[in-house]
């Protein structure tokens, strides 16, 4: 029983990191309608930024966090302005944008490897302490921080999307780009903001990942697949949906390895991704779209 | 009866696109379906050629129930059709279009690798001669003008082995001279014994050419008859002008 | 001494070029000629490599192992098309990418068969009719012959009436069905041929390097193959051959810079990714491409 409860808690923690990745990704997808696969590298770049600022140069931790989030936000904006937007202006299809984004991911992954080396890096801000045990469930303070921070961010994000003018514009563009243009919404500007905010979320995810795991240049692909899978499960063009989907994925992974060998964690995610794309590409909560041949 | 459609129903979401449509096409005749925009003519064409799955109804072709067939299977039985928005293979030449249309079995690739070029050139030239594209035989589809694309679409439909030719607005958007030559082409085909079913908005073209007319409105046939009868039918006017 | 080193080194690069020509042309057959958006082509390469290596280690003669590699890969090609036929655009691209992730994680996790992350060492050099290709010079001749035969067959296919049907499927599948052609069957035949030759090249690769592990068949390998196909141009075999030669050779110039080997690998990957992004932005049809990527 406590093993099951522990797995559920672990699922929540993994899920909340996936959800941070997925929320930013699906915010960008829903406004721009193409797959920004390089979102994963924003997370990793943020993680390394934390390592460099805090561990190498000794910047105070909270300043490090703020700088990292800004860095990540503008890193995302730069990708949009320097690569995606010029491609869109050339009339590139979504598939081209997807391929370009995979290229960006691989490019920066290797640049990070050249700068920092392929070995894992430890940030070591919060020392690994023995966890708090409550009713047979063990959680480290850091894991509690991760859960709390991500829930606060999801609430803020939801408020932002529902209550602010920019949030409404984003939803408008995501529903109907042409109509949004007609009523005077500048969709490039809205896209700018979607990349800024989505990548800032990637920055937060990067900080939490840097605190919880060892950093490696190659983790971007894996994190992106997990975030993407979460988004697909929940509904890729629906931000709350993709958050829910990410928790479902976190749960599935952690409950799945109760019955399967632990090496199958990734296989569970990949298989879920593949199955959802095949049978329910709109996800659990996603809107219907003309993605099929008639 | 070469083609008979009985009680066809098709909904798109809440819209009844086809609402109990019934009609039959006779052998060796030119038959037209006319009707106002949105009356379900093109949907009916798509239902017949199986590109759109109908909700209910029966389609018979040469006395055989073809309702459960897939699009390409029915096409092999002898239906040939064109599209309102011309559908071509942009990166193939006119000749290649016709080669594809003619041969029935060239998707078996092992046979294909062994087999050399067939002597189908004569037939291709004949068809291209008929529609007047014989000089552009090696031109890529993407380099053709709108009128030429329309003619190529027609040529493909003619060249494909068939017993019924279905044309969706064959003269929409073409200039008057081309319209007349298309009319002549269709007449000649009919003289050779072709059965033709067409959709057309150009009333002069229809009244002058066809043997039999079905008028569709709101997804069903509201009138039928020879052109003279249709011209006098008050229901038809009402359908076009509104009540 | 130096000339001996250079020629041995060039032999190595040439062998890789011939292996990759088969792989790239086979992808072009699916992606360029048939318009099958397949971002999972490296999975076929991997399946071929593993099949051939494992069978040869079990004592099967090389020729049989190589053919089996092609056939087994093409079974997966068939399944992939049947499974993803309803999808299109970027969803199809992601599903095929997901397929390659699934294959990757299977290679990693089916440890009983594939030895997981440890990889398979000691793959025997091919031996046909009593002749074993032990040295690289001998292997070069062998690979060249297989490459010549494979490319010739694929060249014949795309120029046959069957090949024209594949191009027609890419240009307008609806129109082709109306002409009485079974486009689904055309698609899976094309994918099976494509996967077959990818499997063959995987076999050649495994028995040349003599060691394989799952990381050789993952996303960075995919970037390389995609880059080459797009640089060479869709639906152009000539383009694929030229681009393979240039792009495999190009990063070898890095050797002149005398970088440490830990930088060489990532630098090469980064260059491939950069070329991919650049070609998409500057000349999306590549060197000899006839069609656009939809």
Q: What is the CATH third-level topology name of chain B?
A: Rossmann fold
CATH topology of chain A: ABC transporter involved in vitamin B12 uptake, BtuC
- Quick one: CATH superfamily of chain B? P-loop containing nucleotide triphosphate hydrolases
* Biggest β-sheet description of chain A: 2 strands, antiparallel
For the terminal residues of chain B, how far apart are their CA atoms?
34 Å
Give the proportion of residues in helices of chain A.
over 70%
CA-atom Rg of chain A in angstroms: 19 Å
**Using DSSP, what is the number of strands of chain A?**
2
Taken from the alpha-carbon principal axes, the silhouette of chain A is globular
Strand content of chain B: 15-25%
Summarize the entry for a quick read.
Chain A has 294 residues and is an all-alpha fold. Chain A is 74% helix and 2% strand.
Structure description:
The complex is a heterotrimer of chains A (294), B (243) and C (294). By secondary structure, chain A is mostly helical. Chain A has a single domain (2-279), classed as ABC transporter involved in vitamin B12 uptake, BtuC, CATH 1.10.3470. Chain A is built from 11 helices and 2 strands; from the N terminus they run H-H-H-H-E-E-H-H-H-H-H-H-H. Chain A has helices at residues 2-32, 39-56, 61-89, 94-116, 141-163, 165-175, 177-182, 187-212, 219-234, 239-259, 265-279, and strands at residues 132-134, 137-139. The longest helix of chain A has 31 residues, at 2-32. Chain A is globular, with a radius of gyration of 19 Å. The mean pLDDT of chain B is 83. Chain B has a single domain, classed as Rossmann fold, CATH 3.40.50. Chain B is α/β, with parallel strands linked by helices. Helices cover 38% and strands 24% of the residues of chain B. The two termini of chain B are 34 Å apart. Chain B has 10 helices and 10 strands. In chain B, a hairpin with a 2-residue loop joins strand 1 (3-12) and strand 2. The model of chain C has no long low-confidence stretch (mean pLDDT 86). With 294 residues, chain C is mostly helical. Chain C has helices at 2-33, 41-57, 62-84, 89-109, 111-114, 136-159, 161-171, 173-178, 183-209, 219-232, 237-249, 261-282; strands at 127-128, 131-132. Chain C is globular, with a radius of gyration of 19 Å. Classes of the chains: A mainly alpha (294), B alpha/beta (243), C mainly alpha (294).
